[in-house]
Design goal:
- The structure is a single chain.
- With about 375 residues, the chain is α+β, with helices and mostly antiparallel strands.
- α12 runs antiparallel to α13.
Length: about 375
């Protein structure tokens, strides 16, 4: 088995980010159950305030179900330009402490502070200072997890939410993981957790007692990953320049569509938006994927890989249209999306990306 590489990693996760930005900008929404995205008849919730979460409202929930759970729920449209603006301010704070910052999304990031610009040996104190600065300079609260690798830091950041943090020191790692419900393990989704439960694996300790052969037999290539992480082994370094793997755009319709003819105009509009995003990122790709969400919320994807890179809306539209007519639709359609992957940024990123830093600690991990 691999030997763990011990680092000082902070995972910072903003609290209900989209909803919190809306409540900050519009004081009349503070203290009220709020959903960003969707509405009471259509669409999907992108984010929910903590007041709404008390009623079981969650991201990715349909607006209809969210309204059923919370009749007083207020829906507001997302303002992504504003969220990006706030996110840039937060990341600027991160870079005051380390250049090893790996954003996962607009509202969360990993920071490697093993060696940091403040020469502060305490990762926990750095996390506290960062969270305080975010509150004072931006006006929002953040939670943080601090530990020896990204996997444990990610789990720990959810431990004392909202507006809290948790440190898992090297000597506490195994005990911390053994007591966790496996559904708390980052990367273990509902389907995998249910399968583990059926196999008698409920906690980290249960998982640790299973052999590598057993886990590989039941979980395939992921078996080795589960075998290692429950032993505290996760040697992935913080990568400041994460390579974009795909770019996409999608639209949820006001009314379900049942004919491909009616979908063509919408598909061209989606291709046009995707064209804009690709050109903004100066990226093109070979694989086009059409995403179809039916009225019963079931999902289907259809893909085609070309011999050449494309980023033009007309070409993207033609491929997506071919995929639309590839087979009959199973039901009426509520959402269409197009994404491009197999991108041409791999060679460029390899030239631009600095080598990742991997430091084996020779000193005590201080709280």
């Amino acid at each position: 088995m691999e030997v763990p590489v011990l680092r000082k990693i902070i995972h910072v996760d903003m609290d209900a980010f989209y909803a919190s930005v809306e409540q900050m900008d519009f004081p009349e929404l503070r203290g009220k159950p709020l959903a960003v995205g969707g509405n009471e008849t259509r669409g999907v919730v992108s984010a929910a305030s903590y007041e709404a979460r008390k009623f079981g409202v969650r991201s990715a929930m349909s607006g209809i179900q969210a309204k059923r759970n919370c009749p007083e729920l207020i829906f507001v449209p997302p303002r992504f330009d504003r969220y990006k603006e706030i996110s840039k301010k937060i990341r600027k704070i991160f870079f005051d402490y380390t250049d090893l910052v790996e954003p996962l999304s607009l509202d969360e990031a990993y920071l490697d502070v093993t060696e940091n610009k403040k020469n502060n040996p305490s990762a926990s104190l750095i996390a506290e200072e960062i969270r305080l600065r975010i509150f004072n300079e931006v006006g929002l609260t953040a939670s943080a997890g601090i530990s020896v690798n990204k996997f444990i830091a990610k789990i720990a950041s959810d431990y004392n939410k909202p507006n809290g943090q948790k440190t898992v020191n090297p000597g506490e790692v195994l005990d911390f993981l053994e007591k966790l419900d496996v559904k708390k393990f980052y990367g273990v989704g509902k389907v995998t957790a249910d399968k583990m439960y059926q196999l008698g694996i409920f906690t980290g300790l249960d998982l640790k007692e299973k052999t590598l052969e057993f886990l590989e037999k039941n979980f395939g290539n992921s078996g080795k990953h589960y075998y290692q992480i429950v032993r505290g082994v996760h040697n992935s370094a913080v990568k400041p320049n994460r390579k974009i793997k795909s770019i996409g755009a999608e639209r949820t319709f006001n009314e379900n569509l049942s004919s491909e003819i009616y979908m063509e105009d919408r598909l061209f509009n989606i291709a046009t938006e995707l064209d804009r995003r690709l050109h903004k990122s100066k990226i093109s790709g070979k694989t086009i994927t059409l995403k179809i969400k039916y009225s019963d919320f079931s999902l289907q994807t259809r893909s085609k890989t070309l011999q050449y890179f494309i980023a033009d809306k007309d070409l993207i539209f033609e491929v997506a249209k071919d995929l639309l007519y590839q087979e009959r639709l199973k039901n009426s359609v509520r959402l269409l999306g197009i994404s491009v992957n197999n991108l041409n940024n791999e060679e460029k990123k390899e030239k631009e990306m600095p080598k990742s830093v991997s430091v084996q600690l020779r000193f005590e991990f201080k709280e």
